[in-house]
Amino acid sequence: MTDKQVPVPDRYTAFYWENAALGRLAVQACEECGHVQFPPDAVCESCQSQSLTAQPVTGRATLYAMTVIRQAFHPAWTDSLPYVIAQVQLDDAPGIRIQTNIVQADPADTAPVPPHPAERKYVSPTRMASGSGKSALRTGSP
Ligand SMILES: [Zn+2]
Q1: SS3 of the chain
Q2: Measured in angstroms, how far is the CA atom of residue 15 from the centroid of ligand 1?
Q3: Which is more confident, 40 or 133?
């Protein structure tokens, strides 16, 4: 059996994984201009400052797009099929869309319909077996 690959934190992404391990979602904020960004980078994508810090976000989000994964592109994911992934727009970090799993969705009940703009979701990091985190989408409130 092949293990699922897990992310390896580096100096730019460590804050994200440290927060995720505590059940918190965080993005990167520029201390110079206030710009928020995700995924993390070495510099601010707005002013190129290297003064970046972690900014916690609530995880409240709007579903932007979703799909059901029915084919494993790596053998380690075969036992997880089918599963639902989505792209969501964070409410308190305008312009940031993140990829996430929808953990409460039944793939059999997930028809290929356009996302409703008013459909509210909550993104919260979950722990993987290795102790690192990944995002997961739940419906309802935090
Ligand atoms: Zn900046």
Answers
A1: CCCCCCCCCCCCCHHHHHHHHCCCEEEEEECCCCCEECCCCCCCCCCCCCCEEEEEECCEEEEEEEEEECCCCCHHHHHHCCEEEEEEEECCCCCCEEEEEECCCCHHHCCCCCCCCCCEEEEEEEECCCCCEEEEEECCCC
A2: 18
A3: 40
